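Look over both lines:
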Amino acid sequence: MRNRQREAWAARSNSRSCCPGGGCPGVSVASGSLRSPSSLALVPHSAAVGTNQPAQPTAQTPPDSLEISLIRARSQDPTFHYRRRPPPAMPPPAPTYTRYETRRRDPDPRKAALLVIDVQGHFASLAAPIMPAIASTVALCRSAGMPVVHTRHVDRDDVPRSRPLREWWPGDRIDAGTPAAELLPGAGRAEGDLVVEKSTYSAFAGTGLEEALRRAGAEEVVVCGVMTNLCCETTARDAFVRGFRVFFSADATATASRDLHEATLANMAYGFAYIVDCMRFEAALGKVAK
């Protein structure tokens, strides 16, 4: 009798569950332990609720390039740390940025400098699809007589990383003297180009870049490189605040996803920068040459 009562009670409990089979898909009913969500098929909510038929799993959505995985801290701290998986290369850019434009202007090569942001070994996979556009942009600016400045992010033992960077990118260092810290051969560096080492998102923070640009007579900057939504966007915003007119490349910048890239272009066009690409840039410099 008691066994039959326990079986009936278990059956009623399972029938109240929102998920077929008696329990949420992330929890093992037998042991109560957590199962990895990545091993589970996605079940439509409409199929899981209000029916006695087993739901048909749909194809699992591939994880986003910046999907966050949880790892427990090795210390006694009970909180969780977040670590991002290395992002793959962004798909080749499409000329969609014009829909974001609120105003248009051509750069003046007599007053402008090109900033090539962090085209270095650490970001080689992100930069790979845009290397032809970066090479074209550098060549166009150089032929127009514009100063070309390269930046690279470097972590040095004698300079502690800032707390925010340690929190966002734990263990993700770019050590000086390693291939990750070196500029990529296709970045177009030439003898005489200024190379600026930085340790945070903005190329202006504690680097002397503003003073170097002022000495060169630059009033405008053109920003290209990686990552669109981090170092490129932060450098562009910082340049704007410091009084430079900013031009932002749509096809010579890249980041971890199309959504992040497009979001930055929309923000830049709304209130910080004029958006350009290689074709528009070539046309603008051609006008000045004539």
User: Anything to note?
Assistant: Residues 92 and 129 are 6 Å apart (CA to CA). The domain at 97-289 is CATH 3.40.50.850 (Rossmann fold).
